Amino acid sequence: MTEFRRRDLLKGAAAGSLATQLAACQTIPETLPRAATDEVRFAVVGMNGRGNAHASGFRRLPNVRLVALCDVDENILKRRKKEYEKNGESIATYTDMRDLLQHTDLDAVMIATPNHWHALQGIWACQAGKDVYIEKPVSHNIWEGRQLVRAVRKYKRVCQSGTQSRSHAGTREAISWIHSGHLGKVLAVHGTCYKPRKSIGRVEGPTGIPKTINYEMWTGPAPLVPLMRKRLHYDWHWDSDTGNGDVGNQGVHQMDIARWVIGSDALPPRVVSVGGRVGYVDDGDTPNSQVVMLDFDGVPLIFEVRGLPKDKASQSNWGGNMDRYMGTRIGVVAHCEGGWIRFDGTGGPIHAYDNDDKEIRTFTGGGVSHFQNFIDVVRSRNTADLNADIVEGHLSSACCHMGVVSHALGEAAGADEIRKAIADDHPHFTESVERLLTHLEANDVDTNATPLILGRRLELDPQTESFTGDEEALALLDRRYRRPYIVPTYV
Phi/psi of residue 302, each to 5°? Predict the structure, then answer.
């Protein structure tokens, strides 16, 4: 823990509205099981993108009612309210989540705000006695993710992570089949996020914020600085103050499946990253091309991000022609002693092959929706039935954050320097990096003129979830939170 946290966080632990302060101090009455016919009333925080899917999806479930919306953008809030009140419903609106938490007759809160808000808003909801469905990643850094888990446990809340593959019947069956030993020992797991990401452009000075948006509230725990990109919404993913790049955006879904295949219930003890933001110069600062290796005591989890298309010629139809790894563009491939298995990121069939690449098994099936699973457990209070309990979301998100920290502490290096530095690493990692270098060359990226970042090799104690022997890495376990939006030391 940084010195800032030791001396300052306790003072700001309950900073915010009076309601939040009281919620943090009071004992939350235990929520008792209820019948399947009992109504569950929910609110959604963050209505521009994924939150709209939450509102639409949950309200289609039987005996589930949308009672409130919350967003810092008044235009979005008014538009969504109008859309959802067509059937004569009455839906309250809020621009401050702390006010929303005082809403009467509210059982659960669905959080779909930018990443930098997830953990704090989840903690607030727990302190107010609400169950929580929280989008991925469930945190912006490792420390606050664990704080969210602590809050969920302390207040005995139901908290589902938004990693929907956990509720896909085919995925669950396939992973159980792997764990039963049908393919032998797991040797290595690859996650891929080959997803087209064009430049977000470059501005010469601060961009004006519409008066309908409370930018101070939108910024929340992050530094309050002028907006230096064209779009406020969505492109926050590529700003490290608010997002985690594609490794923590699309990638956390595949990271979650990969970690699930390995079967670890703790973070890996080692990480290293190679990558950079190349192919264009814009206002983003997160990698659009990256390979992360997480070493689970000899079983490597290799995660690859490619935001550029297959080659330079494909840039005329950006994203129309992306690379694939063993048949998948966005997915997971597990290499085992007796063969390999491919999980496609679209939720389609899962194919298992022997070592001669002959298909030996296919897994299909949808299963109960991730939303329905959450509502079922809100009613039953049996959190063991959650398909994506918060601790799973925390560990998978934290794996992404480990790669982010390695990259943040790395140094520029050309292709030959990178090859030399990783020559003794696991063959799956060195092969992945070599394929990345070939991919960049096909896109006319000169990695000597535009070096990548050779990330710092970091050691982590899985028990304490803390980096060891590196003060700079320790400082990046959390962040310098901005008052009053401080993730509390004591939840």
Answer: -100, 125
CA distance 118 to 264: 24
AA identity, residue 439: H
Sheet strands side by side (includes 92-94): 92-94, 64-70, 40-45, 108-111, 131-134, 159-161
Q: How many CB atoms lie within 10 A of CB 469?
A: 8
Nearest Cα to Cα of residue 203 among 180, 235, 243: 235
> Is residue 110 helix, strand or coil?
strand
> Rounded to whole angstroms, how far apart are CA atoms 65 and 92?
12
pLDDT of amino acid 26? 57
243-288 residue pLDDT tens? 999 999 999 999 999 999 999 999 999 999 999 999 999 999 999 9
Output the CA torsion 233→236→241→247 (10° steps).
Answer: 150
Buried b or exposed e, range 92-115, using 16+ CB within 10 angstroms:
bbbbebbebbebeebbbbbbbbbb
Average pLDDT over residues 468-478: 97
Helix (H) or strand (E) holding 194: strand 186-194
Q: Print burial letters for 450-468: b (CB count within 10 Å at least 16), e (below 16).
A: ebbbbbbbbebeeeebbbe
Extended beta strands in 307-428, E state:
330-336, 339-344, 350-353, 359-363, 411-413
223 vs 241: CA distance, rounded Å: 7
Dihedral angle sign, alpha carbons of residues 273, 143, 288, 298: positive
Note whether 457 and 413 are within 8 A (CB): no
